[in-house]
């Protein structure tokens, strides 16, 4: 590892119509190092990356690449300079083969024709080089997102990327897939590629990164080598206060054991849907948080969607408040008092062009029908109330919701359902991809709502979050609900993992 | 600046520019209304009067486009509305008000039913809007021909029906009154109720809207119904103005002008946010443009080319990328400590 930096950014400042997104930030990247850029949403991470990749041009400051001053006018320009980016969403073409994706735009030619044989051979070599084994002739869509991401990385590396930026690459991957990705990253680092890694998963950052740069409110907090900065200090730097925020959200009232005589609010018996989730039995009582845990693709989301009425079941029955539910769909579900925050808030939750206020009142308005608009004064009160209560920023109800950070978007979605005062709230990955502050807010809210008597079905990929919040935990594996943990002593990550492994093995 | 106004600013600028060109060529008579025979006249008033059918159709189209849809059948529905109105009167006592109102009512009812049919195919049977409405775009003129028996029914110049296109109330031409009334009615319908917001939600993100519990199917049918109704009313106004209903050529290609007006007005074809006032400005631009071509002395062959050029200009002005590019030389340089030129070739070559 040479000490001569490959990228040196000094005094980078960037303003967006009155808001200073970056304020004199320095950033140094050395060859062969994996460097994390850490900070809450809104800290300026993505602006810094966008300046580096030519999406934004800085208002002040200098960028040196290999010691030469550069100024990128466009992402293409930056790429030509050797800076490539791999995003969370894969920017490749699904229906082309792996090999075609790797060489799109620079195919090996035989006269005017594409030399497919050479292309496949070189694709194979390229993937072997980073230790990934794929059928290069198969369409990209036949592989998981994780594999597609590796293809994107391989492509970037082959276009002689000196600097590789990985923006939340792991957020939709399961544990094994993350392992593969990290292994490839290590291999690339050994070969001398410098990488910028952005992730909300602290354990991954600690596992793979050599150094980290921490930003807060557009300012540089500092740069540390990973070994010198314990996790608690890192979080302190990111939040700017000594936080025990996450630890503090132990349930105020200790966990309630479901009373035996209490009628469940929701009772699913043999509820299922072919190809998505095997028939399952699940009860949820008022004031209870039921967590769903399992690996990605284990059927967590599918379970939630059946109870929410987002998907139609093809077997079993669902009772709500002791009455059997017929013709379950999102509209009748909302009318019964079931709120559902889906997994993907951008594509299934929010309407990006509509304002914060409009997105908030959508479910309430839908239940009233189009002819009975919520009176403007009442609407303004409700919206202001929830913006305040959930601490949504910026607190401007007329801002398009697409301009908000992930955490604030999630809060808008929560507010939408809280407005109709649901009896059951279903939250599918409400804390995914959002910063620690917002995460703590949302966890606190879940605890609070259930304390007020609301039933909550809570899904998260982060097991400690599930164990912290849940009264009972449904464990899923391979699209089947394999167990429901309910003993106080069972509410541990180890117990869940153990259940997945042992119970799954029996089948 | 208010984002709503921002959307309207560029179409408005183009409209003003067109009006200024006309005033420069023909004097202020172009814009100042005159009174002839107890009704308002003058070049600009006539443009508005003649544009009224297009306005109705474009307003209906705006709502359809807001839902991510499109209605290609409006020209054919225009022809059907005109045919029903003219044929019904022709077969009966032309001077009777009862007959005239029955004809209008019947035509509007049929147009609304056709619209609802389009909407049903789109919402309940999942047919793509362009395909669903293409069916009636083709079949509609055939239906109109069947109604008129292949003839062009001409009504008497004395029937009250023609007032719909030629008449005036308190000197204001009836088509302009109808245009304003429909505009006001649609603004009230969409903006004082929650219909507008729910439309924008359904058009902006159908799946999120479904999960929020919005009855998007009913709303979609309603919007196509309104669009059909507007097209039928436009056809009646057209037939009343001409005193006849031409099943083949009445409202020919008006769907394209309507889509154009919607787009000029700032409503995106991908659905979501819609701007009824913007559409109205778009219609005025299209109407003024046709007169401008003649006023500046271009032959009428220029009409399509000139229209294309104006559409191009509006589309470019609405593109933030284009505006940034064209305004670049005029922008003061900031950040004195940053090197102004892009990355040096030397650095990139490395």
Radius of gyration of chain B in whole Å, from Cα? Answer: 23 Å
CATH superfamily of the largest domain in chain A: P-loop containing nucleotide triphosphate hydrolases
What CATH calls the topology of the largest domain in chain A is Rossmann fold
Q: How many beta-strand elements of chain A?
A: 22
Sketch the topology of chain B as an H/E string, one letter per element: HEEHHHHHEEHHHHHHHHH
Instruction: Please outline the major beta sheet of chain B.
Output: 2 strands, antiparallel
Largest sheet composition of chain A:
6 strands, mixed
Question: From the alpha-carbon coordinates, what is the Rg of chain A to the nearest angstrom?
Answer: 24 Å
Largest sheet, spatial ordering of strands of chain B = 1-2
Overall pLDDT level of chain B: 89
Main sheet: strand order of chain A: 6-9-10-3-11-12
Overall number of structural domains of chain A: 2
Structural class of chain B: mainly alpha
CATH class of the largest domain in chain A: Alpha Beta
Q: Based on Cα principal axes, name the global outline of chain B.
A: globular
């Amino acid at each position: 590892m040479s000490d001569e930096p490959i990228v040196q950014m000094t005094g980078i400042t960037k303003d967006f119509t009155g808001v200073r997104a970056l304020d004199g930030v320095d950033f140094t990247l050395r060859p062969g190092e994996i460097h994390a850029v850490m900070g809450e949403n809104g800290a300026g991470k993505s602006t810094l990356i966008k300046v580096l990749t030519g999406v934004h041009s800085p208002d002040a400051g200098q960028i040196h690449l290999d010691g030469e001053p550069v100024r990128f006018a466009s992402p293409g320009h930056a790429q030509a300079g050797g800076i490539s980016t791999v995003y969370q969403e894969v920017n490749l073409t699904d229906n082309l083969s792996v090999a075609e994706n790797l060489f799109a735009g620079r195919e090996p030619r035989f006269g005017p024709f594409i030399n497919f044989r050479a292309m496949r051979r070189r694709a194979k070599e390229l993937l072997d080089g980073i230790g990934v084994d794929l059928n290069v002739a198969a369409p990209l869509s036949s592989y998981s997102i994780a594999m597609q991401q590796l293809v994107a990385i391989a492509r970037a590396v082959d276009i002689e990327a000196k600097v590789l930026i990985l923006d939340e690459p792991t957020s939709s991957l399961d544990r094994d897939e993350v392992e593969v990705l990290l292994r490839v990253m290590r291999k690339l680092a050994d070969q001398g590629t410098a990488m910028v890694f952005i992730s909300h998963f602290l354990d991954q950052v600690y596992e793979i990164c050599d150094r980290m740069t921490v930003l807060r409110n557009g300012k540089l907090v500092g740069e540390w080598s990973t070994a010198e900065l314990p996790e608690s200090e890192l979080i302190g730097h990111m939040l700017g206060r000594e936080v025990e925020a996450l630890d503090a959200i132990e349930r105020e009232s200790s966990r309630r054991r479901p009373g035996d005589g209490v009628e469940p609010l929701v009772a699913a018996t043999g509820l299922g849907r072919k190809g998505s989730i095997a028939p399952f039995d699940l009860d949820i009582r008022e004031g209870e948080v039921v967590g769903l845990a399992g690996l990605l693709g284990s059927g967590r989301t599918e379970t939630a969607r059946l109870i929410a009425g987002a998907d139609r079941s093809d077997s079993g029955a669902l009772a709500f408040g002791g009455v059997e539910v017929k013709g379950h769909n999102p509209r009748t579900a909302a009318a019964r008092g079931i709120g559902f925050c889906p997994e993907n808030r951008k594509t299934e939750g929010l309407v990006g062009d509509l304002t914060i206020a409009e997105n908030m009142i959508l479910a309430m308005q839908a239940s009233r029908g189009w002819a009975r608009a919520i009176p403007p004064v009442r609407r303004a009160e409700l919206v202001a109330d929830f913006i305040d209560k959930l601490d949504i920023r910026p607190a401007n109800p007329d801002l398009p919701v697409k301009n908000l950070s992930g955490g604030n978007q999630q809060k808008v979605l929560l507010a939408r359902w809280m407005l109709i005062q649901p009896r059951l709230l279903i939250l599918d990955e409400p804390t995914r991809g959002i910063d620690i502050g917002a995460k703590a807010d949302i966890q606190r809210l879940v605890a609070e709502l259930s304390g007020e008597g609301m039933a909550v079905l809570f899904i998260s990929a982060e097991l400690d979050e599930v164990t912290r919040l849940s009264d009972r935990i449904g464990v899923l594996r391979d699209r089947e609900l394999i167990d429901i943990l309910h003993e106080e002593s069972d509410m541990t990550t180890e117990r869940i993992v153990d259940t997945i492994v042992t119970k799954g093995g029996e089948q | 600046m208010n984002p709503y106004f921002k959307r309207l600013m560029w179409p408005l600028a183009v409209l003003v520019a067109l009006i200024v060109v006309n005033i420069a060529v023909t004097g202020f008579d172009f814009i100042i209304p005159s009174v002839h025979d107890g009704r308002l006249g003058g070049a600009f008033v006539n443009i508005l009067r003649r544009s009224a059918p297009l306005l109705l159709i474009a307003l209906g189209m705006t709502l359809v486009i807001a839902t991510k849809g499109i209605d290609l059948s409006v020209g054919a529905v225009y022809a059907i509305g005109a045919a029903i109105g003219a044929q019904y009167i022709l077969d009966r006592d032309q001077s009777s008000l009862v007959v005239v109102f029955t004809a209008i009512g019947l035509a509007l009812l049929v147009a609304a039913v056709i619209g609802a049919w389009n909407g049903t195919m789109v919402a309940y049977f999942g047919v793509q809007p362009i395909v669903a409405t293409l069916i009636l775009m083709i079949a509609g003129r055939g239906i109109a021909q069947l109604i008129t028996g292949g003839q062009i029914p001409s009504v008497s110049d004395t029937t009250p029906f023609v007032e719909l296109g030629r008449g005036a109330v308190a000197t204001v031409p009836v088509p302009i009154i109808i245009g304003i009334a429909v505009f006001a009615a649609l603004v009230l319908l969409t903006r004082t109720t929650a219909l507008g917001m729910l439309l924008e939600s359904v058009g902006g993100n159908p799946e999120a809207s479904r999960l929020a519990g919005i009855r998007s199917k009913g709303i979609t049918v309603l919007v196509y119904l309104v669009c059909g109704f507007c097209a039928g009313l436009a056809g009646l106004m057209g037939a009343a103005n001409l005193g006849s209903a031409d099943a083949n050529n009445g409202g020919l290609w008006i769907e394209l002008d309507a889509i154009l007006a919607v787009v000029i007005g700032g409503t995106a074809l991908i659905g979501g946010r819609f701007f009824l006032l913007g559409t109205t400005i778009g219609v005025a631009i299209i109407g003024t443009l046709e007169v401008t071509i003649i006023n500046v002395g271009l032959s009428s062959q220029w009409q399509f080319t000139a229209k294309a050029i104006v559409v191009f200009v509006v589309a470019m002005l609405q593109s933030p990328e284009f505006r940034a590019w064209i305004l670049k030389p005029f922008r003061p340089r900031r950040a004195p400590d940053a090197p102004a030129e892009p990355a040096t070739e030397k650095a990139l070559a490395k």
